[in-house]
Amino acid sequence: MPEVTIRYFAAARSAAGASSATAEAASIRDLVTTVSTDRPELARVLSICTFLLDGERAEPGTPLTQGALVDALPPFAGG
């Protein structure tokens, strides 16, 4: 499986306790599962996030490639 980096923003960063992590995952869905195992608050926040893959919006089933950069963006209030 490819090794990728996930960057956390706002509430996701708070729930993760870090600004980023690396993990091996085949899809964004797999990545979310991997990084949130035994971390229910992070799993909750990631379940409502929008994801960007190398700067482009991506769905949970989107496949990942070696070195990909995934951004986890929780909903933001305001405008």
TrEMBL record:
Which organism was this protein described from? Answer: Kribbella sindirgiensis
UniProt name for this protein: MoaD/ThiS family protein
InterPro entries (alphabetical): Beta-grasp_dom_sf (IPR012675), Mopterin_synth/thiamin_S_b (IPR016155), ThiS/MoaD-like (IPR003749)
Q: Which Pfam families does the entry link to?
A: ThiS (PF02597)
Q: Which domain of life is it from?
A: Bacteria
